[in-house]
Amino acid sequence: METDCYHSHSEDETHSFGKQFAEILAKGDIVALLGDLGAGKTEFVKGVCDYFQVEDIVSSPTFTIMNQYFGTDSEGEEITIYHVDLYRIDSPKELIEIGFDDCMFSQDAIKFVEWPEKAGDMLPDIHWTVDIIISPENDNERIITIRHPNKVMDHSLAENVE
């Protein structure tokens, strides 16, 4: 498994890491987002959505459970981005009610799932894992770990942060 670790010193840098990460995503990818409440998972997704030119306001799906955004990929084709937060989900039945399975098996979308362990067997193979941890030394800094089971990652990601 390929693993890379980056240090973000601000919310803007976390956003920029998301934007850079978006460059290597493909339709059909599923990204597990790990991290405590307030760690910066939504800010990371905002960066991804910025890359894909999403015009809607990107917000946390904590209370809506699933947000859907439409953008444009680098080839000018429409792309759908789902941001799902399973924090408030208590049973697999709830996942069926919100259309989670349809969302996850869509090959025309990129899917971000917070609290993926709550999906159990309903979550297909995860392509990426992004773990965002608040630095123990500084509450404003984040440690972002990105894992992929097969792909060799672009180690210049941190060098390209705007």
Secondary structure topology:
Layout (H helix, E strand, L loop, with lengths): L1 E7 L2 H12 L7 E5 L6 H11 L14 E7 L5 E8 L6 H6 L2 H5 L4 E6 L13 E7 L7 E7 L14
Parallel strand pairs: 2-5, 2-6, 4-5
Antiparallel strand pairs: 1-7, 3-4, 6-7
Helix pairs in contact: 1-2
Explain this structure.
This protein has helices at 11-22, 41-51, 92-97, 100-104; strands at residues 2-8, 30-34, 66-72, 78-85, 109-114, 128-134, 142-148. With 162 residues, it is of the alpha/beta class. The chain has one domain (11-132): Rossmann fold, CATH 3.40.50.300. A 7-stranded mixed beta sheet has the order 1-7-6-2-5-4-3.
CATH superfamily: P-loop containing nucleotide triphosphate hydrolases
Could you give a short account of the major beta sheet?
7 strands, mixed
The whole-angstrom Rg is: 15 Å
Order of strands in the sheet with most strands: 1-7-6-2-5-4-3
CATH classification class: Alpha Beta
CATH architecture group name: 3-Layer(aba) Sandwich
Q: In angstroms, what separates the terminal alpha carbons?
A: 27 Å
Helix and strand succession?
A: EHEHEEHHEEE
User: What structural class do helix, strand and pairing data support?
Assistant: alpha/beta
Q: What share of residues is helical? A: 10-25%
Given as residue ranges, the uncertain stretches (5+ residues, pLDDT < 50) are none
- What is the number of independent domains? 1
CATH topology: Rossmann fold
Question: What number is the mean pLDDT?
Answer: 89
Overall form: globular
| Total of helices | 4
Query: How many strands?
Result: 7
Q: How much of the residues is beta strand, in percent?
A: 25-35%
